[in-house]
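haha ok so turns out i had the wrong file open the whole time. this is the CORRECT one, sorry everyone. sequence first:
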Amino acid sequence: MSFKVAIVGATGNVGREMLNILEERGFPVSEVVALASRRSQGTEVSFGDRTLKVRALDQFDFSDTDICIMSAGGNVSKEWSPKIGKQGCVVIDNSSAFRYDQDVPLIVPEVNPDAISLFTRKNIIANPNCSTAQLVVALKPLHDFATIKRVVVATYQSVSGAGKEGMDELFTQTRAVFVADQVDVKKFTKRIAFNVIPHIDVFL
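then structure:
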């Protein structure tokens, strides 16, 4: 069995990595479609030894698509994931948009794979923040053995979590600091070069 898979946010760092992983793992695809905003339409991305031309998300028909991997940020996901799910396509959302939605299963395959059966409520599957995902993989066997009652965690996130724009801003600000140029702030709320700010993604 093979699947038609759409990647939303295919021009971003995470979207490109998702394409790489699908190819590396030999995921059974009949077709892969790269999607992004209209301004990225026509951009080329790689899928193995093939080159895909990016198509516009708002002009794509998902009715014959099996799986949509959504990695275009919370606002895009909030608008588009329910619409895509209603067309019969299963959305795997990589943003924070549906992590607190009781009708959307929050899945880490190594921890709670059985919960995936709940996806049929909205045809959407969510995944937790990257640090949470790896943390619960380590905590699950400990919890099974001894029952964890409370966990206190502090995480320090890399700017790559904010995508290409975040990494570009870190690079340009770092260069500006070293040559004593003006430091421009666009993507983050404060200067990110040589800094830590108490803010990641959107506040929930």
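The longest strand covers residues 29-36.
again sry for the mixup
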